[in-house]
């Protein structure tokens, strides 16, 4: 399920995942890990760069416009102080891990410096925290009608239209949200 989206069903019992779109970057018999991509953090990216010492106060004004407006997303409830950057495969350092055919993950400060200096990947999103599931937990949630799954697309993964992402993804896979039900049935 690496490189897939999880789309929360309307009856999602965990409020932290209400209307969430999660990008799954690791899934095995041992569990799963992913990032909510349609929830924002209250922290601005330039403030994060300052807090981490990547730039100084005097450098704020020189940040490229795209960097000043780079969104910090809430990746999930686990380890919310740790940052992760999902990005296109045109940026690689020793700590970069491929997670899908053309998507990578870097969780070191090097990528923040590169983005701040306008030398990072062509497409990227940053999260604080991640979403994690123990062995068999995600499969049970899917079987219990908690999540829909579908292959991820780079355009939806990296676009900045956070508020419409959930509805656009459902529409793309041919689902009318008003017709979704919370109950699981067996024939």
Automatic annotation (TrEMBL):
Transmembrane segments: none annotated. InterPro entries: AlgH-like (IPR003774). Pfam families: DUF179. Belongs to the UPF0301 (AlgH) family. This is UPF0301 protein PPNSA23_12400. It comes from Phyllobacterium phragmitis.
């Amino acid at each position: 399920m690496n490189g897939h989206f999880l789309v929360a069903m309307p009856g999602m019992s965990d409020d932290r995942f209400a209307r969430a779109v999660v990008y799954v970057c690791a899934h095995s018999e041992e569990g799963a890990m992913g990032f909510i991509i349609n929830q924002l953090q209250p922290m601005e990216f330039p403030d994060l760069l300052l807090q981490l010492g990547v730039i100084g106060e005097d450098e704020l004004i020189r940040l490229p416009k795209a960097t000043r407006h780079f969104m910090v997303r809430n990746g999930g409830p686990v380890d919310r102080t740790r940052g992760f950057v999902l990005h296109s495969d045109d940026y690689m350092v020793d700590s970069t891990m491929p997670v899908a055919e053309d998507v990578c993950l870097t969780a070191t400060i090097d990528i923040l410096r590169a983005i701040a200096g306008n030398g990072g990947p062509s497409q990227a999103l940053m999260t604080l925290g991640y979403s994690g599931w123990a062995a068999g937990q995600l499969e049970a949630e899917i079987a219990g009608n908690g999540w829909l799954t579908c292959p991820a697309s780079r355009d939806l993964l990296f676009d900045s239209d956070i508020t419409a992402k959930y509805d656009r993804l459902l529409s793309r896979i041919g689902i009318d949200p008003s017709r979704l039900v919370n109950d699981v049935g067996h024939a």
